[in-house]
Specification:
With 110 residues, the protein is α/β, with parallel strands linked by helices. Helices cover 40% and strands 18% of the residues. The protein starts with 5 loop residues before the first strand and ends with a strand.
Length: 110
Protein backbone atom coordinates (compact mmCIF):
# COMPACT_ATOMS: atom_id res chain seq x y z
CA UNK A 1 0.00 0.00 0.00
CA UNK A 2 1.21 3.54 -0.61
CA UNK A 3 2.70 5.20 2.46
CA UNK A 4 0.01 7.88 2.55
CA UNK A 5 -2.86 5.34 2.60
CA UNK A 6 -5.65 5.62 5.15
CA UNK A 7 -7.11 2.39 6.51
CA UNK A 8 -10.55 1.90 8.04
CA UNK A 9 -10.59 -0.27 11.14
CA UNK A 10 -12.39 -0.33 14.44
CA UNK A 11 -11.25 2.16 17.08
CA UNK A 12 -9.62 -0.63 19.08
CA UNK A 13 -7.62 -1.69 15.98
CA UNK A 14 -6.36 1.79 15.13
CA UNK A 15 -3.02 1.52 16.90
CA UNK A 16 -2.41 -1.94 15.42
CA UNK A 17 -3.05 -0.55 11.93
CA UNK A 18 -0.52 2.23 12.60
CA UNK A 19 2.13 -0.07 14.03
CA UNK A 20 1.90 -3.02 11.65
CA UNK A 21 1.10 -1.32 8.37
CA UNK A 22 2.73 2.04 9.13
CA UNK A 23 -0.41 3.63 7.67
CA UNK A 24 -2.93 6.14 9.01
CA UNK A 25 -6.28 5.07 10.45
CA UNK A 26 -9.47 7.08 10.79
CA UNK A 27 -9.78 6.41 14.52
CA UNK A 28 -7.87 4.98 17.46
CA UNK A 29 -8.04 5.42 21.21
CA UNK A 30 -6.52 8.92 20.96
CA UNK A 31 -9.33 10.14 18.73
CA UNK A 32 -11.62 9.92 21.78
CA UNK A 33 -10.29 13.37 22.69
CA UNK A 34 -11.46 14.98 19.44
CA UNK A 35 -14.60 17.06 18.91
CA UNK A 36 -16.28 14.73 16.40
CA UNK A 37 -15.91 11.50 18.38
CA UNK A 38 -19.59 10.49 18.29
CA UNK A 39 -20.04 11.25 14.60
CA UNK A 40 -16.84 9.45 13.62
CA UNK A 41 -17.78 6.39 15.70
CA UNK A 42 -21.23 6.27 14.07
CA UNK A 43 -19.63 6.56 10.64
CA UNK A 44 -17.33 3.61 11.37
CA UNK A 45 -20.33 1.54 12.45
CA UNK A 46 -22.17 2.57 9.28
CA UNK A 47 -19.21 1.66 7.07
CA UNK A 48 -19.21 -1.89 8.44
CA UNK A 49 -22.99 -2.35 8.46
CA UNK A 50 -24.55 -0.51 5.53
CA UNK A 51 -25.50 -2.55 2.48
CA UNK A 52 -25.57 0.64 0.38
CA UNK A 53 -22.57 1.44 -1.81
CA UNK A 54 -23.56 5.10 -2.25
CA UNK A 55 -23.66 5.69 1.52
CA UNK A 56 -20.37 3.86 2.02
CA UNK A 57 -18.64 5.84 -0.73
CA UNK A 58 -19.90 9.11 0.78
CA UNK A 59 -18.18 8.25 4.07
CA UNK A 60 -15.12 6.78 2.36
CA UNK A 61 -14.64 10.07 0.52
CA UNK A 62 -15.23 12.13 3.67
CA UNK A 63 -12.41 10.34 5.49
CA UNK A 64 -10.27 9.74 2.38
CA UNK A 65 -10.17 5.99 3.11
CA UNK A 66 -8.08 3.87 0.74
CA UNK A 67 -8.40 0.45 2.40
CA UNK A 68 -10.89 -1.34 4.66
CA UNK A 69 -9.59 -3.82 7.22
CA UNK A 70 -12.10 -6.50 8.19
CA UNK A 71 -10.93 -8.61 11.12
CA UNK A 72 -12.51 -11.58 12.82
CA UNK A 73 -13.21 -9.44 15.89
CA UNK A 74 -14.92 -6.82 13.70
CA UNK A 75 -17.10 -9.54 12.18
CA UNK A 76 -18.09 -10.67 15.68
CA UNK A 77 -18.69 -7.16 17.00
CA UNK A 78 -20.98 -6.19 14.12
CA UNK A 79 -22.39 -9.68 13.54
CA UNK A 80 -21.32 -9.72 9.89
CA UNK A 81 -19.53 -12.20 7.63
CA UNK A 82 -18.31 -9.66 5.11
CA UNK A 83 -18.82 -6.08 3.97
CA UNK A 84 -21.84 -6.39 1.70
CA UNK A 85 -21.24 -3.39 -0.55
CA UNK A 86 -17.57 -4.34 -1.04
CA UNK A 87 -18.33 -7.97 -1.84
CA UNK A 88 -21.03 -7.05 -4.36
CA UNK A 89 -19.26 -4.18 -6.14
CA UNK A 90 -16.01 -5.27 -7.77
CA UNK A 91 -15.84 -2.02 -9.74
CA UNK A 92 -15.23 -0.01 -6.59
CA UNK A 93 -13.76 -2.56 -4.18
CA UNK A 94 -11.03 -5.14 -4.62
CA UNK A 95 -10.18 -7.80 -2.07
CA UNK A 96 -6.39 -7.46 -1.89
CA UNK A 97 -5.69 -9.64 1.14
CA UNK A 98 -7.42 -12.58 2.78
CA UNK A 99 -6.51 -15.23 5.32
CA UNK A 100 -8.67 -17.39 7.60
CA UNK A 101 -9.57 -14.46 9.85
CA UNK A 102 -8.95 -11.16 8.07
CA UNK A 103 -9.63 -9.37 4.80
CA UNK A 104 -8.48 -6.11 3.29
CA UNK A 105 -10.42 -4.31 0.59
CA UNK A 106 -8.88 -1.64 -1.63
CA UNK A 107 -11.10 1.27 -2.63
CA UNK A 108 -10.97 1.73 -6.41
CA UNK A 109 -13.70 4.37 -6.81
CA UNK A 110 -12.98 7.96 -5.92
Amino acid sequence: TPEDSIVLGRISEGHMINQISKRKNIADNYFLLSDDVDERNEDIITLYNTPFTARALELIRRYKINYIFLSESTKKQFNIDDITYARLNEECFEEVYKNEENKVYKIKCE
